Amino acid sequence: MKLWTKFLVGLLIVGGLACLPWMIKNPYYLHIIIMSGIFVLLASSMNLITGCTGRLNLGHAAFYGIGAYASTLLVMRLGFPVWLAMFLAGLITIFFGILIGVPCLKLKGAYLAITTLAFGEITRLAMMNLVGLTNGPLGIRGIPNPPPIIFGGSLAISFESKTSYYYLLLALCLVCLVIIRRLLSSQIGRTFVAIREDEVRAETVGIDTTHIKMMNFALGAFFAGLAGAFYAHYVRFISPDTFTLNETFTILTMVVIGGLGTFYGPIIGGILFTFLPELLRAIADYRMMIYGLMMSVAIIFMPEGIIGVLQSWIPRRTEQGGRSG
Amino acid sequence: MNPTESILNVEGLTKYYGGLTALEDFDLYVKKGEILSLIGPNGAGKTTTFNLITGLESPTRGKVAFKGEDIIELRPHQIVKKGIVRTFQLTRVFRKMTLRENVAVAQHIAIRPGIWSALLSPSERRREQKGVEKAEEMLRFVNLFSKRGDLAANLSLGEQKRLELAIGLSLDPELLLLDEPVAGMNPKETQEIIGLIGSIRKKGITVFLIEHDMRMVMGISERIIVLNYGKKIAEGSPEEVSRNPAVVEAYLGARDRQ
Hints:
heterodimer, A: mainly alpha, two-stranded antiparallel sheet, 14 helices, 3% strand, globular, B: alpha/beta, Rossmann fold, 6-stranded mixed beta sheet, 42% helix
């Protein structure tokens, strides 16, 4: 019965999301919705590393950027088909995820944050200065659309309207989120939390923490890379300005305020913090300042984010006393 | 000292922290199926010994062999796989996980998870399910079954120690190292743990423990090793050790300083 209701709710949400483009005709709104989907992916992937495993990764925008540049360059320089390039971009991002993951294995807390921060900046500087490859600060324009998907000849989805991109993103998000959900509820997800809680203890119950931490970084990088690849082929213009430290902090805000280490937290955070700046365009200059303030307040007053607050409203089945310190 | 009947052999184990000698030329063996205790004043090197055996620290020099196989180069999770499992003096349970999750996550070696198999393979789900069943069985064994859904952070110290035991046992150890299993517990809780250690031994698991509670040590150990300032000062049956003048001096001396 419970499974049945869950299935129904899921169907209703997916159905509702699928109908969205019919209700919203304004392309600007549709664009914001698509961007929020990209940020849901980014926040969920950062949450794998920062929320579940407790390793503050301040280079997440670099994974996003590497995915975008990898797919773009594969298509425009090497002539790969767009679909293949988007997937390969995810794999290339895994490679970079592991590249930064190896020196970070022994690092924790602030040291890990500084190292990943440096990685993010190096990546951005490489995008700026490898002019021959990336066209430097001018960025790359005219990135091709994905070719149309043809179903049996008569029915085809061509990627010219925002609506078709919306459906593509919806499919991408659903697949990625189902995968993340399944991983988090499996043994692998539990080992992530075990490593966050006590790494030494995790080793002494037989968990190969090195292996799991690498896997964790690779997974986080992969989903961020896919988001980047989608972004490149959707906006059709990329430049180093998109993949800055500010972007990382925006994603971090989404994860922290949504709910660190939870599945739904980054989804809520991702949607909320894509819409909010659009509503508050008048004070856009103070955005990062406001984010910083909100994060500080959230960490003090709602350490488990919006999800934590929501959960405290719903009575729990098992009685659980006060929060641990 | 017959090496054929011993499962753990330690030779010349030494650990210096800079100029500080934590452990020096320590030899020891553990016989299959026995309960062996390691005692000594604070700072004698007992926990360091456990850390060196379980791979959490690497020794300055010395040899550790488990069932004839050198394990000094192995990482902690590999040593667990070989069959040596430990608990911690200051309990280290996963505080923000439920009791059931605490034991289930420790079934890692049996579950053998992978990204693809987590997503696609029904057999991994079955192995995970088995892990949960095993967790519940172990929680029943240490009498914590009724709290299986609670967060470990909400347990009392005595309960956390029993949870540590459940985690340790769930790993099917051949040799179980218990670091002060009754420290800070009241007499009733101590009695419970002593009972549990008895049933653990009946399962054929060799127990090597560190303990300060002398009544418990004298009561359950078959053999005792005494450390002081990183050196072995006595070894033998409880009677032999308690009559040994060097041991008496080490303990009285330690008390004088406090």
